[in-house]
Amino acid sequence: MGLIVAGIFLVLALFVALGAIKIVPQGREFTVEQFGRYTRTLKPGISFLTPFVEGIGRKINMMEQVLDVPRQDVITKDNVSVQVDAIVFIQVMDAAAAAYRVTNLDFAITQLTMTNLRTVVGNMELDEVLSQRDQINSRLLSVIDEATSPWGVKVARIEIKDLQPPPDITNAMARQMKAERERRAVITEADGEKQAAITVAEGQKQSAILQAEGRREAAFRDAEARERAAAAEAKATELVSNAIAAGDVNAINYFVAQKYVEAFAKLAESPQQKTVIVPADMGSLVGSIAGIGELVKSINAEGPAPRAPSPPRSRATPTTGA
Fold first, then answer.
1. Please, what is the Cα angle at 278 between 272 and 283, to 5 degrees?
2. What is the distance, to the nearest Å, from the Cα of residue 307 to the centroid of all Cα atoms in its chain?
3. 102, exposed or middle or buried, with CB in 10 Å at 0-12, 13-18, 19+?
4. Which parts of the chain have pLDDT scores under 70?
5. How far apart are CA 166 and CA 84, in angstroms?
6. Rounded to an integer, what distance in angstroms lies between the CA atom of residue 102 and that of residue 112?
């Protein structure tokens, strides 16, 4: 009988000892209550409790958690109903405050987020709501983080997951976007045509300038050529004049042959002329040209001849009729 009683006491002792040893896993904290009153918080690891006096109160998750905010209808400042939902990232920093200062921490934060989401979105117009999500997130974060601070909770981030305007508003926005893109396309096309016209005009301007410079250069060259031709003609005239003064008949033939050749050339170049008649005395013309060549050679070889005195002019004798 004594052995049985001893065995019972041994089992009870083991049960009490095992109940007094508590192992807290990483990422969690346990609150300790003494006769229902909070006394301390157990950190991750092994801890010992006073048997029959202390017990575990709440087991708090200290890791960052994600709360899903349900979708809700919100009226914007310009009276447009949009459906909004969000997610909240929270982390418990004080296990005792999270355990004893609020009932159902997750539900409380979710309701607080929904209320402030309606307030923030309701003070903005639809275009602002759709284009300024970052501003909405920042405002919600500041408000909710301040409200949950007494609960020992740190709100890390708040993100708007989805914004859905009514179907008619969505269609109107699509038409507006299409019209805006068409307007930009027209403006871009007009700018391209303008730049092309400017480029063409600039090219024509440069072409006109280059053509004018070319004509000016050609005029200078033509004038220079005419000047050289005139100088050569003057030199030839001087040589022939000296030869005539010396009494050379070939010099006179030079002028006659020159005018003869020029007239014949114009006759051959006429657009109405289909047949060119060669004069019968063409042989004598060739002989005159040959004589002119001999004249030039003799002048170049001997130098300018002295000027002979002109013969006295004889007085005409009147004739008498029979």
1. 155
2. 87
3. middle
4. 1-2, 240, 244, 246-322
5. 12
6. 13
